[in-house]
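Fold this sequence, please.
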Amino acid sequence: MPETLTITAPAKVNLSLRVTGRRKDGYHALESLVAFANYGDTLNLGKASATLLTIKGPGVVPADETNLIIRALRALETHVGRSLGTDIKLLKNLPVAGGLGGGSADAAALLNGVIKLFDLNVSDTQCVALARALGADVPACLASGPCWMTGTGTDVARLDSLPEADIVLVNPRVALQTAPVFAALDCRHTPPTNHNRQPDLRNFEDLCDFVTTQGNDLAAPAIEMVPEISACLLALLDSGAACVGMSGSGASCFGLARSGAGQKIAAQYRTRRDGDWCVASRLIGAGDAELA
């Protein structure tokens, strides 16, 4: 067994997001094409006599028991019935409350990493159950590959393939909480209720067509709260992105491009909005999803 381990927590990107209804329990039913960028947070894990979480990076998040990373560790400890003292060092690269699933990705990475670090006898099914109890986005983040999310987001079908693409991620440096965006959606916009099948995306054109056609039902209420989102989307298009969208509940946006074009688009974007957070990366395909 390793004594230390470094594990990545890639950004989760909702390439499409449709809200298909609201359930009796108050949760919203969703359909979302989810992919992951080859960029995100990093967790360094080491065995320790007592658990300690330290956080570095531009994102400010609590390092106490309310952090989803610690909650994930406590859930795992309860499941195995013993303490799992872990020294956790988080490098927080992703924007906080940015719609890129940073907290969920961190929690999923913690589950994967600690199971490996302590060589725990936890099945994939049991790990998914732990993830579902932590939050709607955590199950999708257990394997950082493309998937089709339905239900409240916890029903995840892995995709066999995803066209190669570069992705440029941007954020106007505005944190946007999810709950108010959903509340605004309920008050001002009723999305269509027809359901889509899991998409069959054979090439880059298929991917862009699907992203553009499906869109993100949360974009309209999010833009009302953070008008800069519109400026981000327009700047991505003006910089050469083939298609653009908002991820999750915002305020982060993305632009897709053919492989090799992302860095140029990001450079062009920075000349238009030099104060924004902007990263060029690529989509993680179905064949190269990493758990660690």
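The first strand starts at residue 4 and ends at 14. Residues 63 and 154 are 25 Å apart (CA to CA).
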